[in-house]
Amino acid sequence: MTEKRHLMDTFSKKIKSSTLLGCLIIAILGCDSSSIPPERYQQSDALIQTISSNLKKAPYLTEEIKVDHSRLASAKGQPFPPTQVIIFNNDNLEAKMLHQKQILALDMPLRILAYESSRDQKNSVVWNEIDYIESRYNINFSDEIVSQYNKSMKAATEEIPAKFITHFSTNTMKKSGITTLNSRHSFDDTYQKSLAIIKSNSDVVIFDEIDFQAKALSQDVSIGKTKLILFGAPKPGGKSMADAQTLGLDAFPQKYLVWQDGDGVHVSYNNLTEIADRQNTKKSIALRIIQYRLDSSFKKGFDEP
Length: 305
What we know:
This protein has 305 residues and is α+β, with helices and mostly antiparallel strands. The chain has helices at residues 2-29, 42-57, 69-75, 91-100, 130-137, 143-156, 187-199, 212-217, 234-241, 247-250, 272-279, 285-302; strands at 62-68, 83-89, 110-116, 123-126, 178-183, 205-211, 226-232, 254-261, 264-270.
């Protein structure tokens, strides 16, 4: 009887050990985990729907795209708490801002994130204050632009109860968190080459392409050629956001800018780990791998000798 119990105890320890090993493998490789119950999405869906309805009411705002990070990642076997971003335009405001600095397009169009915290399952909405944009790009906007920006965010979040609204602890970054490379090619060739580099990763989805020069011209504002590509890979992106959902505002979808000024053609993209530092959120191994892949792909393509 004692020998049998000893064998059972040994077997139990092995099971526990293998379970722990399995958990470690899941944590590192991102294997499938339990799905998110549909009812968990109700509150974040309601917040996004309120914002979407508000955009329809404001004649100067138009919805560009919604990206449901959580559901996209879940469909690829990497579920994490409800997290979705709504991206919208104020064409007149954006034209005025980009007229001052084209690279500002990395923080355009306007956007708001609705998410359920992985820590306490509290639902919140968050966006960037204009102070953050001024700090990041070392620029001072006119009172008119500041007023337009704040008016846009207020209109978009009308009727969102105060208990759901949260803010980042800081509106500054130690570094700009932007990598810019020069291209030896024409603007059009650079843009097509950029698309080819992005599409060369089989798990990547291109969510949107935005021509800011065309949008500015519609507002009688002249800027250089400026196009933004919004893209991402839902599974690794989901793993990066699992305990850092606010990355779904700035880091994901990833943003890649092709722009031309008097000095030539450039490509710019965000450093995702530096955005995580600004948000004071987790920098997972998955996030670092994505950043490495971005740097290696784009620098190889454009940082030519």
